């Protein structure tokens, strides 16, 4: 249905979308904090409770393994319950892990304790990526911010990018993950159609055009307000910065086969292994970039 970027389809530029939408939306840290405080332990289950979660896990893990080495000083931002903390901590020289939600950081600490990894984590911090003032410039070799923290930032998106780049050494790398607007629209189209019945076609067009769920234009009941992004918007966030984009990947492509099919696929071990291998491979093809649940960029600070 959608070929290319949504902003092309609606004949508006990303800049004007930003002017109309994201830039007008004010970041409210209470929204993600309250959501993830309440989400609690579910965040630990998120990447193993269904096959989509498994696909996402494998694609992210592959990228982390290829860019993090045992000489790296790493910070994890928006770490949640620690699904990737437990892996990153075994790959690097030292790790500080952090999140906006105090509850998520408590769970992360507890999980690392249970896994016997707590002594390897240098610090657990409560940090908001829009303002990392407690961290000095040029501190880290790698900053990992995956799973969508960037999608709650609205008018502070660029602040967060600047902050994450600021705390990196030159030559350091930012591994950034965002929720993908087009992938999510395709996967959840049934839900979008249902919500159209409650919110109307103008709200639906707003969502397709901007990727924004907000109080004014797309007031979802759970108040989980966020800005899902296209790769074009991610590109715009790095435009004019002293960076080189090393890699772009989608994640969760085979989610479109739906859970039931994926569960059957998993019954056949050699088929499942092949599927994961191909998920990792196909997510690197430019034509798939916006089609998964997430978009991941690896950025080098020059
Ligand atoms: C979907 S979870 C992802 C957790 C983990 N990184 C992963 O990929 O499994 C998103 C996390 O981002 C955190 N978060 C949201 N906004 C944030 C912000 N402004 N600064 C730091 N963390 C934030 C949430 O509290 C939540 O734990």
UniProtKB/TrEMBL annotation:
Coiled coil segments of this chain: none
Keyword flag Transferase: yes
GO biological process, any: methylation
Span of domain Methyltransferase: 74-172
Entries under Pfam families matching the protein: Methyltransf_25
Keyword tags: Methyltransferase, Transferase
Matching Gene3D superfamilies: Vaccinia Virus protein VP39 (3.40.50.150)
Name assigned to this protein: Methyltransferase type 12
Alphabetized GO MF terms: methyltransferase activity
């Amino acid at each position: 249905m959608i070929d290319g970027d949504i902003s092309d389809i609606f004949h508006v530029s990303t800049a004007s979308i930003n002017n109309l939408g994201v830039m007008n939306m004010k970041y409210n840290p209470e929204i993600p904090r309250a959501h993830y405080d309440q989400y609690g332990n579910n965040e630990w289950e998120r990447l193993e409770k269904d096959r989509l979660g498994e696909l996402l896990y494998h694609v992210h893990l592959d990228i982390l393994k290829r860019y993090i080495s045992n000489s790296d000083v790493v910070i994890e931002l928006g770490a949640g319950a620690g699904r990737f903390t437990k892996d990153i901590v075994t790959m690097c020289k030292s790790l500080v892990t952090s999140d906006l939600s105090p509850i998520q950081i408590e769970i992360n600490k507890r999980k690392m304790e249970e896994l016997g990894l707590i002594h390897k984590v240098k610090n657990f911090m409560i940090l908001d990526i829009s303002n990392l003032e407690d961290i000095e410039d040029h501190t880290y070799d790698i900053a990992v911010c995956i799973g969508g923290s960037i999608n709650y930032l609205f008018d502070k998106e660029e602040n967060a990018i600047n902050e994450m780049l600021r705390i990196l050494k030159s030559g350091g790398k930012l591994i950034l993950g965002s929720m993908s607007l087009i992938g999510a629209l395709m996967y959840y189209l049934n839900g979008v159609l249902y919500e159209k019945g409650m919110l109307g076609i103008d709200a639906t067009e707003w969502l397709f055009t901007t990727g924004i769920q907000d109080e004014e234009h797309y007031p979802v009941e759970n108040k989980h307000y966020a800005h899902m992004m296209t790769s074009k918007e991610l590109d715009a966030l790095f435009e004019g910065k002293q960076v080189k984009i090393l890699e772009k990947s989608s994640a969760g492509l085979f989610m479109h086969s739906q859970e039931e099919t994926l569960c059957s696929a998993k019954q056949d071990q050699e088929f499942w292994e092949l599927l994961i291998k191909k998920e990792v491979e196909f997510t690197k093809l430019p034509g798939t970039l916006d089609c998964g649940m997430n978009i991941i960029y690896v950025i080098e600070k020059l």
